[in-house]
Amino acid sequence: MDDTSRKAYLQSLKTQRKKAHAALEEEKLARTAQAKANRLNNGKSPRKAGKEQATTEAVPPEDGLFDPASSAEPTAITPTPNTNTTPRAIAPGITPGTSADLIDGATGLTEPRALDGAKPSPLYAHLNSKGYFITPGLRFGGDYSVYPGDPFRYHAHFMATKYGWEEEITMLDLVASGRLGTAVKKGYMLAGQKPRTEGDGSKDLINGGEVRAFCMEWAGM
Amino acid sequence: MAATNYLDDLTNTVLHNLEYQHDWTRLKVHKQPGTARPLISGLPPRRLYVHPDEQIELIMAEKNREERIPQPPEFEWVLPTHLAEKWTIKGFAEVFDSIGPIPPSDNPQESSDLEDEDAQWKQWRGSKRGKRILMATVQDDSTVVYYLMHDGIVKPRQN
């Protein structure tokens, strides 16, 4: 292919593109005009508008809704509420900071509610008052993993389980937990809070008496 | 009557296991009027428990003295239980409240001879030690498992 023919070919491509652009532009203008006409007609004869929409609305409806030029003007002209442009609350281009607007009647629920009865357990309070660090203990089969310091620096010393003062403890649980605790180089702690009696107000930790804790280890025999 | 027989049989099972399988000596059954359950005391053939802090003190003391410090066995409390029983925190607390750190000995000077010196490692022995019991759990096939139970928060051994 020589130079002149190449140039001619490129020129033809350019003109083709220009023509295509012009045609698209024309089509777009025609469509927006049509949409305007539709909206104006909508209030008067919805049947006709619907019919016209069916013919023209091969284009998705978002085109009309989210094009600010086409959606802002008609509302200014027709003061009657427009049923076609529903999500007025969700302004285009604004990301909402909360999802509360999306839920009906959710405005009152934005404040976090206080949870009822979320008091720390007596064992937690007891260990915490002695300076231990406590993390959930399910991984070792107890209620808490108890660390003598920062969990990043220390291994847990105990796996602790809380019981009621007169809650029945199955012996097999003690044997199993005691052995598991020893196997992972921890003590197995079981603890319960004595119910408050009249004499010991000073030992009150959380609405009760003193916390008794026992630590178990396999005896190695 | 049946209940007392059951406890006596349980105690005998543990007693025999300690004597003939684990070579404990000077076994004695303590029946206190306050507690329904008999307790056993005895002397194991080897030291049963060394507190981790005592171990550290011993190592330091042995380094200074350049000789080994003897670790004689200590008398221990044994609580016989059966696997089918259900215990409560209250029950354990009552047992601990009814005992002293070391079982009452026939020969008191034996336990007091440790207290002449004021060495650091001695605070873990004799009457200065924390309360602990050896919980013996019996199964129907007469297998007995032993677990040490400490009163309060006692850190685990570095084994």
Automatic annotation (TrEMBL), chain A:
UniProt GO MF annotations: nucleic acid binding; tRNA-intron lyase activity
Region ranges (Disordered): 1-97
Keyword tRNA processing among UniProt keywords: yes
Record field: catalytic activity: pretRNA = a 3'-half-tRNA molecule with a 5'-OH end + a 5'-half-tRNA molecule with a 2',3'-cyclic phosphate end + an intron with a 2',3'-cyclic phosphate and a 5'-hydroxyl terminus
Any one GO BP annotation for this protein: tRNA-type intron splice site recognition and cleavage
Record-listed E.C. numbers: 4.6.1.16
Described function: Constitutes one of the two catalytic subunit of the tRNA-splicing endonuclease complex, a complex responsible for identification and cleavage of the splice sites in pre-tRNA. It cleaves pre-tRNA at the 5'- and 3'-splice sites to release the intron. The products are an intron and two tRNA half-molecules bearing 2',3'-cyclic phosphate and 5'-OH termini. There are no conserved sequences at the splice sites, but the intron is invariably located at the same site in the gene, placing the splice sites an invariant distance from the constant structural features of the tRNA body.
UniProt protein name: tRNA-intron lyase
TrEMBL record, chain B:
Gene Ontology molecular-function annotations: nucleic acid binding; tRNA-intron lyase activity
Annotated stretches, region: Disordered: 98-123
The keyword tRNA processing is assigned to this record: yes
GO biological process: tRNA-type intron splice site recognition and cleavage
Domain tRNA-splicing endonuclease subunit Sen15 positions: 14-159
SUPFAM superfamilies: tRNA-intron endonuclease catalytic domain-like
Keyword vocabulary terms for this entry: Endonuclease, Hydrolase, Nuclease, tRNA processing
This protein's GO CC annotations: tRNA-intron endonuclease complex
The organism's place on the tree of life at top rank: Eukaryota
InterPro entries: Sen15_fungi, tRNA-endonuc_su_Sen15, tRNA_endonuc-like_dom_sf, tRNA_intron_Endo_cat-like_sf
Family: Belongs to the SEN15 family.
Name listed for the protein in its UniProt record: Putative tRNA-splicing endonuclease subunit tsp-1
Organism: Coniochaeta pulveracea
Phylogenetic classification of the source organism: Eukaryota, Fungi, Dikarya, Ascomycota, Pezizomycotina
Gene behind the chain: TSP1
